[in-house]
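Ligand: flavin mononucleotide. Inputs:
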Amino acid sequence: MYPLIRNALFRMDAERAHITTMRLLSLFPSAAHWLTVTPRPSPLLQQSLWGLNFSHPVGLAAGLDKDGVAVNALFDAGFSFVEVGTVTPKEQPGNDKPRLFRLIEDGALINRMGFNNHGEAALRKNLLKKRRIGTVGINFGKNKITANDRAADDYVELMETLYPLGDYIVINVSSPNTPGLRDLQTEHSLIPLVERVLAKRDELYRAHEDTVQPHRPPVLVKLSPDLSDSAVQSLGKSLAGIGVDGFIATNTTLDRPKLLSANKLQSGGLSGRPLAQRSTQVIRLLYQATQGAIPIIGSGGVFSAEDAYEKICAGASLLQIYTAFIYKGPPVIAEIVTELEALLAHNGFHHITEAVGSKAEDHVSPDI
Ligand SMILES: Cc1cc2nc3c(=O)[nH]c(=O)nc-3n(C[C@H](O)[C@H](O)[C@H](O)COP(=O)(O)O)c2cc1C
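Predicted complex:
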């Protein structure tokens, strides 16, 4: 069934197809459920991380549901967790269209969306509207008009507004489409910024401690694949040192490895298959730098159980997909989950946690 829907969607401009899909999912939350089978619960794949339960390791990456309009529909599609955002404090339109491009021959996308979103108040309203049926992460970004030396104010404000609504929080300083954002990935800028967000989280936690369900959301940092290996390692160590709870590796890349599609010359962040190798390498570097002490969510070119397995062995505890969801639709989730279970068992693992980082010491291949 999905190939038919995909044919219809792929006849549209990429962003129009995206808007149509999100509108349908928000109006008919069970629609995705008709297109796929729910992944069967598997004791081998279940994990508890940061006090949160994950029935399997495949979640939705940030950027698809920026405003949290279709969260339950996305759980119905089979994701075990859904990350909404990137949200910025104020609503902003993002870059001029067209800004999303398919690279079909490469199994990739290029986007230069630029954090188009309706802002923190709208996301808050959407998340409060419906009872959520799974783990929801919120990905924070700064407004384009906020100067880098005031960026921390935006992230702290988002924590203040959205604190009770995120099961986990992501500090996104790695999107390539907000001018200067990735410059925040130096230790000099990032460490004080993250310290302020952690301090705000802890202050809010103390204020809510006697509520019915006290919740101290873990704070993760999402990194770019375009950092040098040594920058990844030293950021990994320093962020671990100040108490960051996790990493997402990685965001999209500005690099252009060998690509076939006509759209290869579009500017923006490249995602999908051509990103897979570098994002796995960044996972491995982070796992090595932190000696596996801090959970990593792997993101970048996961299309199959083999791709997922590679990232898990490099050090990822969980995975996120975006581009594969566009190309293969909801059935890709159950496909990865079912085949991953078999792959782990075939390789002698009794539980996914035994595989996490099992090949982290392998040779790190050169940057793409
Ligand atoms: C159209 C599009 C929009 C995205 N928007 C965001 C975003 O707002 N925030 C973010 O952290 N990552 C964003 N990403 C990056 C994805 O979350 C993900 O990290 C990246 O695409 C790599 O995963 P993939 O190869 O499975 O797509 C976006 C990706 C795409 C393709």
